[in-house]
Amino acid sequence: MNAQPHQIEIVVVVNGNPALVHAEQGTHLRKVVEQALSDTGNVGQPPENWELRNAAGLELDQSKTVGHYDLESGVKLFLNLHAGVGG
Amino acid sequence: MASPPQFTEPTVSHTKFASELADYEDQRDEYEARGWLLVEAHFPTVFVVMANTVLKPPPIVCGVLLEFTNYDAMPPSLKLVDPFTRVPYTAANLPTQLNRSLPAQSVQLPGLPAGGNIQMQVAQPLMQAHDPQAVPFLCLAGVREYHEHPGHSGDPWELHRGSGAGRLVRLLDIVHRYGVEPIKAYGVQITPAGFDFGQPPA
Question: Looking at this predicted complex, what is its ipTM?
Answer without folding.
Answer: 0.73
